[in-house]
Amino acid sequence: ASARMAPQPTPESEAERLVRRAVRALEDEDIGPADIALRRFAKQSNEHVLALFDPLWLQLANQHAQIRLRALQLVSQLWDRSAAFRHVVLGHLAPDYLQLVIGDESHPLPK
User: Fold this and answer.
1) C-beta of residue 89 within 8 angstroms of C-beta of residue 72
2) Considering the domain boundaries, does residue 90 fall inside one?
3) Residue 68 half-sphere exposure, CB side, CA atoms within 13 Å?
4) pLDDT tens, residue by residue, 44-89
5) What is the DSSP secondary-structure string of 27-62?
6) Alpha carbon distance 54, 106 (integer Å)
7) How many domains does the chain have?
8) Could you tell me the residue range of the domain that residue 46 belongs to?
9) Under 8 Å CB-to-CB from 15, ≥6 apart: which residues?
10) What pTM value is reported for the model?
């Protein structure tokens, strides 16, 4: 009987798992095991760094302030270390920023 190999997780599913673990890990240390695992994953490739963006972005909208803070800390760490991550963050911020500054039909600028 041949042993079945478990399918390899996709970078996206692994990123989701690592982010979920890291934002919920409220270690007393500055850098805990969950952070180390996330950093190790990110160092493997730009594809891995980019896979971390969506799960982190979603956590920034979490109702729990501590989770939002942890997500922001992780975004900051990746921002410092990865040009690819900076580009994807700026790509998402620019349209939101423009909408906030310029307004839209439902929220026009004052006259």
Assistant:
1) no
2) yes
3) 6
4) 999 999 999 999 999 999 999 999 999 999 999 999 999 999 999 9
5) -SSSS-HHHHHHHHHHHH-HHHHHHHHHHHHHHTT-
6) 27
7) 1
8) 11-102
9) 41, 48, 51, 52, 54, 55
10) 0.77
